[in-house]
Design brief:
By secondary structure, the chain is of the alpha/beta class. The protein contains ten helices and seven strands. Bound molecules: adenosine monophosphate (AMP), zinc ion and fe (iii) ion (FE) (2 copies).
Length: 275
C-alpha cells in the first residue's frame, strides 16, 4: 500500500518529515509521497533519512499546490517534481512571501473584529516559515477563540467568514503547467470536494494527468464516478490519506487511504514513458 498524500511540519502537518517516514515504516506502508502545501522544503530531509538508514520504504517526492478556481479551492498534487532549473522554487518562494502578507492581513482583519491573536504566535505555529490558514486556526484555538481547528475555520477564516482574506492569484492551470514544466506528474487532489463538476472537466482540459480517486472524504459513489471519469479520459488513479498528524483539523490516519502496489506500477510506468 502506498499513501500518496501526506503533510509534514514543512507546511501545516504536525510531524516532521523524519517522524512521518518512521510512522510510515511502522505502519508497514510500501511507499509514501510527502506532499506539503506549496513547498519542497521537507523533501530533502525525508530523502536523506531514507537513504542513510537504508530503509526499504519507497519515498516519492511531491507537493500540493493550493489554487483557486472561482469559489472552489482546487489543490493540484505534483509527483516527482524536480527543480533543476529553479523555476518551481522561484514561484514557490513568491508564494511563501505572499502567504506571509496574507496571514498578516488575516490577523489585522481579526483584530478589527475584536479578536486578538499575535502574529508572532501564528509564526510560531508554522515551525517552518510557510504560513497557512491552519496555523492561524491553531493560534485562534490557543487563545481560546475556538475549541478546535475546524471551529476556528467555521467561525472566522473559512471562505465567506468575516476573517477570510482571499489568496494571491494562483490558478489550477498555472499549477498544472508548473508541475509538468519541472518533469512532474500533475494530479487533481480530492476532486470530490469540488462543488461544480464542470470545473473538473475544465481541469482535465487543462492537462491534468491523474485523479485522486481514493480519499477519506470521498463516498463510495464519488469513488465510482471518479474511477469512471479517469478511465474515460485515460487518467492515472491515485489515492492518499491527507495525513496532517494527530490533533490537526484533518484527522485521517496515515495509510488509511491510498493505492495498492499494482496501481503504483502504472503510475511509475507513466512517469518513465513520459521522460
Ligand atoms: P490556505 O492555503 O492558507 O488558504 O489554507 C488552506 C488549507 O486550509 C487547506 O489545505 C485545508 O487544510 C484548510 N481549510 C481550508 N478551508 C477549510 C475549511 N472550511 N475547514 C477546515 N479546513 C479548511
Ligand atoms: Zn494541509
Ligand atoms: Fe488539499
Ligand atoms: Fe493535503
Amino acid at each position: 500500500m502506498y499513501d500518496l498524500h501526506v503533510h509534514t511540519t514543512a507546511s501545516d502537518g504536525v510531524l516532521s518529515p523524519i517522524e512521518v517516514i518512521c510512522l510510515a515504516e511502522n505502519c508497514r506502508l510500501t511507499g509514501i509521497a510527502i506532499t506539503d502545501h506549496d513547498t519542497l522544503d521537507g523533501l530533502e530531509q525525508a530523502r536523506r533519512y531514507v537513504t542513510s538508514k537504508k530503509l526499504r520504504i519507497d519515498f516519492i517526492p511531491g507537493v500540493e499546490l493550493n489554487t483557486d478556481y472561482g469559489n472552489d479551492e482546487v489543490h493540484i498534487l505534483g509527483y516527482y517534481v524536480e527543480d533543476k532549473t529553479g523555476a518551481l522554487s522561484n514561484r514557490l518562494g513568491e508564494i511563501k512571501s505572499e502567504r506571509y502578507l496574507r496571514a498578516q492581513r488575516i490577523v489585522s482583519r481579526l483584530e478589527e473584529l475584536g479578536i486578538h491573536i499575535d502574529f508572532e504566535d501564528v509564526k510560531r505555529m508554522a515551525s517552518d516559515d510557510l504560513i497557512g490558514r491552519p496555523h492561524i486556526a491553531r493560534a485562534l484555538c490557543n487563545q481560546g477563540y475556538a475549541s478546535c481547528e475546524q471551529e476556528a475555520f467555521d467561525l472566522y477564516i473559512a471562505r465567506g467568514k468575516p476573517g477570510y482574506v482571499p489568496r494571491y492569484k494562483f490558478t489550477p492551470e498555472e499549477a498544472i503547467n508548473l508541475v509538468k514544466s519541472v518533469g512532474g506528474i500533475a494530479v487533481l487532489a480530492h476532486p470530490g470536494l469540488i462543488q461544480d463538476p464542470a470545473k473538473i472537466h475544465q481541469i482535465i482540459d487543462w492537462g491534468i494527468e491523474g485523479l485522486e480517486v481514493y480519499y477519506p472524504e470521498h463516498t463510495q459513489t464519488q469513488r465510482n464516478q471518479l474511477l469512471r471519469l479517469a478511465l474515460e479520459n485515460n487518467l492515472l488513479i491515485t489515492g492518499g490519506s491527507d495525513f496532517h498528524g494527530t490533533g490537526a483539523a484533518n484527522r485521517s490516519k496515515l495509510g488509511c487511504c491510498g493505492i495498492d502496489d499494482q496501481h503504483v506500477r502504472l503510475f511509475k510506468e507513466f512517469y518513465q514513458h513520459k521522460y
